[in-house]
Amino acid sequence: MIERRAESGGPAGRRRPEPTGHGHGHGHGHDHRSAPASRQVKVVLAVALAPFAIAALVGVLVLYPFGHHQRSGADLGFGQQPVNAEVVAAAASPCTRGGPAADGCVALRVTLQDGPAAGRTIEQVVPTDPSTPRFAVGDDVVLSYTGGSTTDPASYQVVDYQRGGPLLVLALVFAAAVLVLGRWQGFAALVALGLSFVVLVGFVLPAILAGEDPLLVAVVGAGLIMFAVLYLTHGFSARTSTAVLGTLLSLGLIGLLSALFAAWTRLTGLDEDTASLIGALGTPIDARGLLLAGVVIGALGVLDDVTVTQTSAVWELRRANPALSWRRLYLAGLRIGRDHVSSAVNTLVLAYAGAALPLLLAYSLSGRGFGEIVGSQAVAQEVVRTLVGSIGLVAAVPITTAIAAAVAVRETPEPVTTDDSVATRVRRAVATGATTATVFRDELSGPTRRRTGPRRPG
C-alpha cells in the first residue's frame, strides 16, 4: 500500500501534483552528496566568501609575531620544573620537625623518575586537609623542582598526579569511536581537530602574548579554523560554502554583541587568574579583549554544529521535493531549526554553568542577594558570555536557513529515482508538510480510494 498525503492547507480531496518523472516519488539515500551547483550559484558563493578567506590569511600574516622573542617561564619567574616520581612509602608524620605526631600530615617517600636527580628517593611531607590531594603508595605523582640543590628535599614539592596514561587511553577511545561511526569523514574530522589545535597553539596564543588585540586575533583565528575544518570535513560544495557563510555572519554578530555588552556592563575581564597572568607577563594585554576572544572561540564549535545541520536539513528537503519554493523550503527548514536551537542553547548554558560550578557554590554561601551575585565581575562575565553566545546560536538558524534555501532552489535537481521505500515516503510527507486527507492506492487492484479517518489494521 502506498500513502500519499494531500498538501497542507489545500481543500480536502485535492492532491499535490507529482513532479514529472516516475510515478513513485523521489527516493534518495541519506549520504552527504549534493546535486551539482549551477555556475551562477558557484560564482555568487565564491564572491561572497573570497573576501573573508583573504582577510583571514592577511590577518594571520599581519598579526603573527614574526621575530618576536617570547620570554620563557623561567624568565617570568615561573622557574619551577615538573619532575615525575612514584610514591614508594607513606606514613603519618608531624607537619613540622619536632611537632606533635597528630598534626595531620603524611610523610611520603618518592622515587624520582626523571629530572636532574632521577633514581634518587627523597621524603616529602604533605598535609591531609580537604584542600590537598590524598597520595598513597604506588601513585605516580608530579613534583615541582625549584632549581636548588638536587639532593635537598626542600627543593621539591608534591603538587599533582601524573595523568598522561589515562588521558592517552581516553583520546584513543575517542578517536576510535569517531572512526568507527564516521569512517573517512570521521578521519577528516580528527585531522580538522588537529588543525584547530595547531591554529590555537601556533597562532592565537603567540599573537596574544606578543601584545596584539585579543579580539582581533580570535576573530582571525576562528575564521581560519572555520574554513579549514568545514571544508576538510564536509568537502568543497555549495552546501559546505553555505554553512561557512552562515557561520561567518553569526560569528560576526556574536563578536559585535559581545563587544557592545562587555562595554555597556563595564566588564574588565580582570579576574584573579587573568590579573596574575598580566602582572607576570609585563605585557599590556587587553583583559576585556581576552574575555571577548574567549566568547568568540567558545561559540565557534557550537555554531558549526547548528549551521551544518541547518544546511543539511534544507538540502534533504530540497532533494525530497524539488518543487518546493524558496519560502516553503525556508519555513520547513526553520521548523527543524527551532527544535535544534532549543537543545543547543541549553547545552551552551549548562556547559558554562558546569565550568563555573565552584564559583557558583562560593557565591551561594556568601549571603549576598541574587542581584548582587549576578552583578559581580566573575558572574556577570559568564552571563554575558552565555547569553551572547545563545543569541548568536538563535540567529544562526534563520540566517543559515535563508541562505541555504536561496542556494538550494537554484541548484540543478537530482534525477528522479524509482525508490519508494517507507523512508522515502516519510521524507516526502515531511517535505510536503501534509496534514489533511490521505489517499491510499492498492498496488494489486489499481483503484484509488480516499480515507479521511484512521486506517484499519491489516
UniProtKB/TrEMBL annotation:
<feature type="transmembrane region" description="Helical">
    <location>
        <begin position="164"/>
        <end position="181"/>
    </location>
</feature>
<keyword id="KW-0812">Transmembrane</keyword>
<feature type="transmembrane region" description="Helical">
    <location>
        <begin position="188"/>
        <end position="209"/>
    </location>
</feature>
<feature type="region of interest" description="Disordered">
    <location>
        <begin position="1"/>
        <end position="37"/>
    </location>
</feature>
<feature type="transmembrane region" description="Helical">
    <location>
        <begin position="244"/>
        <end position="265"/>
    </location>
</feature>
<keyword id="KW-0472">Membrane</keyword>
<dbReference type="Pfam" id="PF07907">
    <property type="entry name" value="YibE_F"/>
</dbReference>
<feature type="transmembrane region" description="Helical">
    <location>
        <begin position="215"/>
        <end position="232"/>
    </location>
</feature>
<feature type="transmembrane region" description="Helical">
    <location>
        <begin position="386"/>
        <end position="409"/>
    </location>
</feature>
<protein>
    <submittedName>
        <fullName>YibE/F family protein</fullName>
    </submittedName>
</protein>
<feature type="transmembrane region" description="Helical">
    <location>
        <begin position="344"/>
        <end position="366"/>
    </location>
</feature>
<dbReference type="InterPro" id="IPR012507">
    <property type="entry name" value="YibE_F"/>
</dbReference>
<keyword id="KW-1133">Transmembrane helix</keyword>
<feature type="transmembrane region" description="Helical">
    <location>
        <begin position="43"/>
        <end position="66"/>
    </location>
</feature>
<feature type="transmembrane region" description="Helical">
    <location>
        <begin position="285"/>
        <end position="303"/>
    </location>
</feature>
